[in-house]
Hints:
- The complex is a heterodimer.
- Chain A is α/β, with parallel strands linked by helices.
- Chain A has helices at residues 8-21, 34-39, 42-51, 102-108, 122-133, 148-151, 158-167, 193-197, 213-229, and strands at residues 28-33, 55-61, 113-118, 139-144, 174-177, 180-184.
- Chain A has a 6-stranded mixed beta sheet with strand order 1-2-4-3-5-6, sandwiched between helices.
- The radius of gyration of chain A is 18 Å and the shape is globular.
Amino acid sequence: MHSLFGNAAAVATGVFAAMRAKGRDTRVVAQAGDGGTVDIGLGPLSGMFERNDDVLFICYDNEAYMNTGVQRSGATPPAARTATTQAVGEHPGNVFGQGKDLPRIAMAHEIPYVATATVADLRDLEAKVEKAMAIRGARYIHVLVPCPLGWGSASKDTILLARLAQQSGLFPVFEAEFGEVTAVLPIRRRVPVTEYLQPQKRYAHLFGQTPDTETIERIQAQADRNLSRYHIDEVEI
Amino acid sequence: MRKQIEGSAAVAQAVALARPEVICAYPISPQTHIVEALSAIVKSGDLQPCEFVNVESEFAAMSVAIGASAAGARAYTATASQGLLFMVEAVYNASGLGLPIVMTVANRAIGAPINIWNDHSDSMSQRDSGWIQLYAEDNQEAVDLHIQAFKLAETVSLPVMVCMDGFILTHAVEEVEMPDQATVDAFLPAFEPRQVLDPAEPVSIGAMVGPEAFMEVRYLAHRRQMEALEVIPAIAAEYGAVTGRVRDGLISRYRLDDAEIVVVALGSVIGTLQDTVDALREQGVLVGVLGITSFRPFPLESVRDALAGARSVVVLEKALAVGIGGIVANNVRTAVAGLAIDVRTVIAGLGGRPILGESLAEMIRGVDDLDELTFLDLRTELVERELQRNRATRRSGPTAENLLRDVGAVGDPLSVRMPR
């Protein structure tokens, strides 16, 4: 069922409540993009988490409003060019801020299960969905999904970019239960953030004739912070 | 069973008699007592099976109701004022999807300026939302309309808003006859949805529709409301047969047969109008009252028939369409188009301003001198002072605060009982 942009979590609660009233065990899954999750749908999502309704909510995060033409969302990373954060001016692209880190916001609700995943590792994603469906209560899976059009990257690089997001440390892949991190996907081959950023035209302004090393360093610092925050180890294959 | 009971408690009991399976609510005055009472009824186990969902906003309340209704559950919520506005996107979605949700609107003004008291601005703002709108004259009717609303909604597959005046009805203790459970069960069968989310018979609900069929979907929604013009009186008659309280369903007529002057109104002010009419009739004034129970669908034919013998019609409105004046009056004018009847608009009772019987009597006696648009008991001295300030200086400040300073007694209930 599709109702509105910002109410997937609340509609899911309604379906769950109906199933419970009718004594049926039909499970409920809600899905939204990053805009419908971190921005316009955050209130209903937080309400569903807080009530611990038996709903699995999956966010497909491509880091901007791609359907309407690549406008910035609360999930758009710093320095990224979008149609509403153009690569012009003194600080081109999106601003540096706190970001809206929905997995951690979900964890703060102390719901039974939170996981992140990327399309680069479908076995990992599948295992997390299966695990989520074996748990009752509010569950949240945040999936990083590159958007060739919005990111300005080649379609053939979609899986590669998702992998580089994880291997650079910019997108930590982990699981958390009741607010505590319980598992982290190790990095097989750690890469500098430039390896992830450079193939994407949304970051092209960082790599002009004079590379914007200051901005690149700030992004690298974010990756480094993720590695220490989630204790992500680099493992040699 | 007859009992002295607060309007909100009576409505909560009536809703419980209808056996909703999902109730979701976010508190807003003056709706709170309804959902508080329902929360107690559900938590005590007196209403089973029923899920009471405390949501984080009215937008979520309507969205939860949408999900529940689409999954085949009888769903109910209640709101008022800003809460109704906050859920508007979902209000239109519920009707567009044809989901038979029942919602109480405890009518309250809309800010700014912020105001918690009664008028009809909230539900009137949703007159074109595709919901059926029923207005209760008193708490007995509020009880009866809620029970009928579920049957009506499910018969025509449209959501129904039952509007009752905030505080004036919701917080008033009146004698109410509550139907018993067996009567309601016999009257209201289990919800048999026209569409339902069911993994055994998969469907999708909420598809995008382009120019190829959008007009037709909207037209069918209109058709269903037109069908409701037949269904509402039929359900009212059926309900009357088992409860003994027979109402037309679409309109209510009071001393209309020989009336030269008719006042048209919605909601609890009809009681005040009836008393006024009785007093004026003793003085020989041929006046009557036409109450509109069903504002959506609007019963054009019933209104035309009821007003056909009148010379002058005054539409008394508790809402204001800023920039033109009346809302109900425009509907009434459509109903009497072609008849030689003067229709005048009187805006009254905005933001809880008391509608006094003596003001109404004066309005009716002076009907021939009424302007096309009149504001009943408007404090012109307050208006003039503010207009003078506006003329005197560019930065005259916020209007609401200026007027409150002039009135002198912020929040003093006596300050609204202004001298005539």
